[in-house]
């Protein structure tokens, strides 16, 4: 299950691009990799590697000053495109715990919430201010989910988040945990009513 998300303070890096789709986040040829650990190698692959498969070191997350980045400041429509959950897994494996953008692809946004990645929607002007702060040396940003605020360079900005997503992230529950937490008595009652169908059947001779 994801770890509970309450408050995050860490280094932020700017990906000043709009319309970053899930195929750019992790290309389709790497979707056959089912293990979450190690997916960071394929994150933003086309932007990070040359034609020979060598890491160039020029991409924002590969620069020495951005080592240990926890917060990615993106543009509009981050995560649009296909429903691949691997895009969220790759970001988390890279150490990204929150993405700030003005808008997100709907499926990516929901996949992120289910896996413990907080997506924060902020106006373009606020995002530009944060980018300016990063360039000016204020690389640390804090995101407080409890009070729904982002703080950078001494400025605090409120953000909205759906109550069910806030509850999910702060509790660290996945779909199964949420279902059992809210519906366990009903599930048990149903299982009791179906007892005859749930009994193991003898194997045919």
Question: Could you give a quick summary of the protein structure above?
Answer:
This protein has 205 residues and is α/β, with parallel strands linked by helices.
Radius of gyration: 20 Å
Average pLDDT figure: 90
The third-level CATH topology is Aconitase, domain 4
Low-confidence stretches: none
The CATH architecture comes to Alpha-Beta Barrel
Task: Output the structural class.
Answer: alpha/beta
Helix content: 25-40%
Query: In angstroms, what separates the terminal alpha carbons?
Result: 42 Å
CATH homologous superfamily descriptor: Aconitase, domain 4
Q: SSE order, as H and E?
A: EHHEHEHEHEEEHHH
Assign the CATH class. Alpha Beta
Instruction: Find the count of extended strands (DSSP E, 2+ residues).
Output: 7
In terms of DSSP E residues, the strand content is 15-25%
Main-sheet strand order equals 4-3-2-1-5-6-7
Tally of separate helices: 8
Largest sheet: 7 strands, mixed
Estimate nothing, just give the exact number of structural domains: 1
């Amino acid at each position: 299950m994801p770890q509970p998300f309450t408050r995050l303070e860490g280094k932020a890096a700017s990906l000043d691009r709009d319309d970053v789709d899930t195929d750019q986040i992790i290309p389709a040829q790497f979707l056959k990799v089912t293990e979450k650990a190690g997916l960071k190698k394929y994150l933003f692959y086309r932007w990070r590697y040359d034609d020979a498969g060598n890491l160039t070191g020029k991409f924002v997350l590969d620069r020495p000053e951005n080592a240990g980045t926890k917060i990615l400041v993106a543009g509009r429509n981050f995560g649009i495109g296909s429903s691949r959950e691997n895009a969220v897994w790759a970001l988390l494996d890279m150490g990204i715990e929150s993405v700030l953008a003005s808008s997100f692809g709907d499926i990516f946004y929901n996949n992120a919430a289910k896996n413990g990645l907080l997506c924060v929607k902020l106006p373009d002007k606020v995002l530009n201010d944060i980018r300016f702060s990063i360039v000016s040396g204020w690389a640390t940003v804090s995101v407080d989910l409890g009070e729904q605020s982002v703080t950078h360079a001494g400025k605090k900005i409120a953000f909205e988040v759906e109550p069910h997503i806030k509850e999910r992230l702060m509790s660290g529950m996945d779909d199964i945990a949420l279902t059992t937490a809210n519906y366990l008595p009903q599930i048990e009652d149903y299982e009791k009513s179906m007892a005859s169908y749930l009994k193991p059947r003898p194997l045919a001779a």
